[in-house]
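Please decode residue identities from the backbone states below.
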């Protein structure tokens, strides 16, 4: 209810007949405008009471959602939804959703010869007039229905393109990596053959120096293959709404002792009132630990400060990890996410490749800024789910 109507409603006893008519005409005009917008938007909207009875819905919702019966005001969702999984989700949401938290889920439906993907987000609110007109229905439950089929297809095409490019890079890296162990195996087999030719008979002790190196190189090749499979296999990602700051705190607590042993101070700057984020806790922790490990290496020997910060930026939340280490030049900076690229004498060169994959699986972005002798900052940007955006807008209206 806007402020003008609220003020008029509070002193309606003092209004004249003409003023009430003007008020009604104004409200009718507003309702007509909102009704037209409500029907024209390409997002389906369903509002139900706490018992699952439809209070209002638009034509888009009727078009998008599979129905067994016509959807209209006054009908019960239990009897009109044509898909059992969708019905279970919506009815359970009505029973469990509160005004403080939201829920979001995707559903796939066969639509002709194509698959339609719908994203259903749920939130709850209490009408200002509920205490006056409807005291026994509890919260109003708002369902927003978005057709994200095209988004999913574009994501799939982009993912395939990125996967192909990544696979090409990884394959080139593997080809480069296996050259040395294969060459070493070939050389030691030749030396072993020459030793046989010289002595005609070799003891195990005579041959062991050649066989030991061949064994080492075979083990090295096996490691390269294992790393290759890690780099190209899809991750088993299970995204759930989680408190991001709690995840960050866990990671910081886990590494604090090791960091202090390297004379590194950890500085937390975690934003307040962050919305929940859809994330895989274990994978995100692993990615953050990889970045922190790089920061430790960059500050090896002289110590420094690692700053971990989170911040809400519009429809996204950012995680930044900044060190005061040696920094990187532009050439290194351009290659750090490439498979098998490393500046360390030991290491697979796949740590930051894994970080990149994890961030992409979270539908996020990662960027790096660095300056030689000053330090490096990794910034991860993750999207805020629609349900959480609605909850934020409701809690902090502009």
């Amino acid at each position: 209810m806007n402020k003008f109507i609220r003020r008029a409603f509070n002193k309606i006893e003092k209004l004249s007949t003409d003023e009430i008519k003007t008020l009604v005409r104004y409200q009718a005009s507003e309702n007509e405008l909102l009704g037209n917008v409500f029907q024209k938007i390409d997002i389906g909207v369903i509002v139900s009471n706490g018992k699952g009875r439809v209070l209002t819905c638009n034509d888009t919702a009727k078009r998008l959602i599979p129905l067994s019966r016509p959807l209209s005001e006054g009908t019960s969702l239990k009897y009109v939804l044509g898909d059992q999984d969708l019905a279970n989700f919506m009815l359970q949401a009505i029973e469990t959703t509160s005004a403080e938290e939201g829920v979001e889920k995707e559903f796939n439906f066969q639509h002709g010869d194509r698959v339609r993907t719908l994203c259903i987000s749920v939130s709850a609110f209490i009408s200002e007039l509920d205490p006056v007109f409807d005291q026994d229905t509890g919260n109003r439950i708002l369902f927003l229905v978005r057709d994200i089929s095209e988004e999913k297809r574009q994501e799939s095409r982009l993912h395939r393109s990125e996967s192909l490019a990544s696979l090409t890079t990884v394959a080139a890296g593997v080809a480069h990596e296996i050259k040395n162990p294969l060459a070493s195996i070939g050389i030691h087999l030749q030396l072993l053959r020459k030793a046989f030719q010289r002595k005609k008979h070799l003891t195990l002790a005579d041959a062991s120096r050649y066989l030991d190196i061949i064994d080492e190189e075979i083990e090295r090749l096996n490691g390269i293959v294992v790393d290759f499979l890690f780099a190209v296999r899809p991750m088993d990602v299970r995204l759930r709404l989680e408190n991001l700051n709690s995840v960050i705190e866990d990671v910081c607590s886990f590494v604090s002792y090791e960091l202090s042993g390297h004379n590194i101070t950890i500085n937390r700057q975690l934003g307040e009132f962050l919305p929940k984020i859809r994330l895989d806790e274990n994978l995100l922790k692993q990615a953050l630990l990889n970045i922190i490990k790089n920061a430790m290496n960059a500050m090896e020997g002289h110590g420094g400060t690692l700053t971990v910060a989170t911040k809400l930026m519009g429809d996204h939340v950012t995680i930044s990890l900044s060190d005061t280490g040696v920094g990187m030049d532009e050439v290194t900076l351009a290659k750090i996410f490439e498979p098998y690229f490393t500046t360390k004498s030991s290491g697979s060169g796949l740590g930051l490749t894994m970080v990149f994959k994890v961030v992409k699986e979270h539908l996020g972005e990662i960027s790096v800024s660095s300056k030689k002798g000053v330090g490096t900052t990794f910034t991860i940007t993750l999207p805020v789910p629609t349900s959480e955006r609605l909850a934020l807008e409701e809690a902090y209206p502009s």
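Observation: The mean pLDDT is 81.
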